[in-house]
Amino acid sequence: YFDPDADWVLTGSFTPTQGRIDIGSSTGGTTAYELAGHLTVTVHGETHRLMVLHGEEDELFIPFRDATAGDTTYGGGRYAPATRTGPEEATVDFNRAVNPYCAYDEEFSCPLPPPDNWLPFPVPAGELAYVPA
Length: 133
Hints:
This protein has strands at 9-16, 20-24, 30-43, 46-54, 60-64, 78-86, 89-93. It has a six-stranded antiparallel barrel. By secondary structure, the protein is mainly beta. A hairpin with a 5-residue loop joins strand 4 and strand 5. It is globular, with a radius of gyration of 14 Å.
């Protein structure tokens, strides 16, 4: 893991959205996910709008890919948890970003980050790439 960094705990405006969206998977197909909404955060003075999905047990997560993907982190992207902190507010903690199961075994089918969640800068927070022993 990267060392924890409070700068990568971001709070922004949350716009709830209902519906389902087909997300591409690591095995080539698509999987339908419940869309929770969009979180708008500011990073390095620029605004970014991220798609937030409902995960298992109704937890919220953001599948994302950043400039570390394929270098120090898993090439297919990572998942960061999001938490509603108010009626129109949510927080994403990139320090808690994890690799999807397919980073450990290609047999797993994992949702890939949608293009809207591709960040053009490095997010040096959360889990690093898995390197088998």
